[in-house]
Model the fold of this input.
Amino acid sequence: MEKEVLVWPFGKKNPRPPYKGDEDESRPCWKKKSIFFELEYWKFLHVRHCLDVMHIEKNVCDSLLGTLLNVPGKTKDGIKARLDLVEMGIRTELAPNLDGPKKTRLPLASWNLTLDEKKSVCGCFYCMKVPQNYSSNVHNLVSMDDLRLNGMKSHDCHVLMQQLLPVALRAVLDKPVRVAVIRLCLFFTEICSKSFEVSKLPKIQSDIVETLCLLEKYFPPSFFDIMVHLTIHLVREIELCGPVFYRWMFPFERYMKVCKGYVRNRARPEGCIAENYIAEEAVEFLAERLLSDKTIGIPKQRSKDCRRTSGAKISSIYGGEFKQSHLCVLQNTEDEHMEYLKATFPTFKKNKKWLKDEQNKTFADWVKKRVEEQLMIPENNISETVRWIAAGPCHEVAKFSSYIVDGVQFYTKLLDDVRACQNSGVYLEADTMVVARARDKNLKVCKLSFYGVVDEIWEMDYTRFMFPLFKCDWTESSKGVKVDDLGFTLVNLNRKGHLKDKFAIATSVHQIFYVQDPIDPMWSVALRGPQRDYDDLVYGEEAGDTPCDHQSCTDRMPSVENGEGEIGYVRAENEGILLNE
Done:
């Protein structure tokens, strides 16, 4: 085998002989042999070159969207692909009618969208509003006249494959085809994660093999080019080289934009880049070493600071809402108070529901009284923060329409409605006492997920410090949130609940965004944005980490059984694809 590899008949000096038909089938199919194969150690390398996940994902996304939407020049379907099927003797019902009128009509295959389905998919993208800095404005990428997506960059394709495309395809295609496409999107979400268990990699490898087998059942053979094939090898490279974000091209592509900005003389671009790079390195060295005294240690996490990004509106708050907001701040220190209630009211010791209601009513006054008693002792360990919290906030509350919390921009729902991005969705996971029925007195502590939107942003004034709170319109957990058979989390924002507990600490919530469900407009699909590293944004690092670690759009990989079902290669809709001869 080694002798065959070393003696290579083709190349620039030895042109390839003409093809002689069936008798020449055994000759090598490659036209060129890389010179790296002459290196002695080359055959011992496990990874001879790294596959770039960014470009593979972009090319697969372009092929997938082009084929589904039948975009000219992007689709893998056409009259030549149909004639290939005829020549191979498979799927004969998809053969074109060449003896018809001037315009040839191709039968609508299982991978083609009807006109109404194209309008549904493009309309879903057209109406999407995503958080700030999540991606480019998806609204501007959609052409409703041509029913296609234009001008997508690599990161746009990444976002579509990770989260948005599975949502847009929920109401179109036959279910087996739809499940196969969603499985392919979830595969890219799994391999692009910044952290995963090595023991799960064999399962991911088997999933992509099954997914490609499903796609081969419903998509044309011309769809499976080299880019689709390379997805098979990505898991192996993760096992050998680690997570893909260490090796993909996103930071390098971003730095190319920086280098292009250095060019002032287009006749000498290399000299401009080298000159500006050296000058920038020198300036940064002087600024960091000579003008700054903080040269050692971990830099301050300035991105974790909370700050206002809009003007304030001062309101005087009294009554139930004021007590709710103050109780939300105090809820982290309630264990001692619960023991006090059990000792004071022994008859209600086992009635957890009554104890919880009584605690919410009297906790703020009890903390204030308890701190005053401790302050009477000369040597007390009450911190200054606890003193001011126990004294209570000022009734004059500052309200804002936008606020940055840990580097994440939040809007109120009222401001969100007039902006091109969506920053008002919030998600909270908390331990909550629940009951099985309304009259049930036995409470159980469970970890529940709460979905809602920010109604108002309050800044509680405790004299020495400010405390930001979100007043939210939460969705009813029992009837307003559900998970469908494919794992999508659906939220009905019209069903409001938890009216007596509207407030949440700003630093404890996560930002999410909602996309209207194409199947039922009353429901919305809840999607979580990526976990960002904001240090690069704060310190102005142009080539920093691109926030590409997205949460999966579903809570599980759809099984092959979800896509089972006999479907024909020709869709039941009485439509076709018109081609000019």
Remarks:
- The CA atoms of residues 452 and 474 lie 4 Å apart.
